[in-house]
Amino acid sequence: MDQHRPHNPNSSYRRHRSEDKRERGDGWRNPNENKHLKPNHHQHQSGATPEQKPLSCPSLSTRRELYERDFPLYKQPVEVGCFSLDAERRFFNDSRQMRYFVEPDRNPNFDLRDGYKGRYVKRDDSVREKLDHILRWIVANRSKLDSSATTASSRALDVDFVTWRGHLTKLLTTPYETREGWLLAVTRFRGTLYISEVETEAAQRERDNRTERHEEMMYWGYKFEQYTCADNPDSLPDPSGVVNTNEAFCTVVQTRLADHRLLFSGEVDCRDKDPDAPAPPACYVELKTSAEICTPKQRSNLHRFKLLKWWAQSFLPGVPRVVAGFRDHEGVVVSMETFHISKISHLIKNEYNCWKPTVCMNFCSDFMSFVKHMATEDNPSVVYLFSWEPRRDVTFSIHRDSQYSFLPHWYVKEMTSGGDSHHQS
Q1: Residue 313 within a domain
Q2: What top-level branch of life does the organism fall under (predicted)?
């Protein structure tokens, strides 16, 4: 493993912008022209925008070739804070759940099945937490995000979008996703767009019908973290303890994608324990497990499918490396490999018909332009529900006071108090 080689965290962030400045909405389509879409699929409810013909339902294409442009500007992500969730899933505005990476042997022989039956507390993933933890962090750290310096006095935060890193990862991978669709609820509140995922019916069915083998393999990923993470820089991992998936340490980062200012949070597995390691997020390490690779075809599949998700998830918050444990069929980690995020595009470039980072980032940027253009009513009880299924366009519907509303009353109240008098509630 070559993880001790110096890594330039800036190397994977392209700072140039396309000379050929495009119009907004390159991929926007009128789905009435697309025969494969159902008529009136998620019919747009409000009046037509100037660029759209009346009665059309604006949509966003996910066709890859539309996004093969120059890599968009993506600023080096900056950590503006962090928070922890304890064994009972309680929020703390601190780093108490931070863990430290301890380098295992090249052939570690970790038994990932150990403790599954007797030392496992599994988070209830039927509880939909929405954006609540990030919103708690925003309320606790409002002074860091105050927009009083900006001219738009009605803005509560100086950002365009607030969301989870996982939701952005889904957007980045959309042009290459062939199996799972998504639903993203968007609310514009005091000038900022909040994006929260809604579970699709297919995802709920999958969750309800998981096999015992699938449940155990989900545990394996957490168990691998237990073998490779210590509670403080001077201690060793303790794989004899309980694996509790309620616990989490999350980074909160700010960055900019093209013209979109983003604030998002994502769970972090651990950090480099070297005291001279760079400041967060450049010291963070993402941990993964995957089936061992025995054939060139399996290596190619890793590059074409898994590395897309791994790259997107780590590139967004500026995490520089993924450490992977490769396991046999019995759940024993037999080898280790480190993937540097800045080198992944080089690793995949000889794969036939492989994914392209520029397509991922341009699609995400265009989706955000589309959302800004469509989600215009500033009202915490109005939700614009953006919907996508593989091989379809992104469409949306509008919902008032519905089950999709996700900004809690305590947050709306907190962010409105002391605000400007002309806020519309």
Answers
A1: yes
A2: Eukaryota
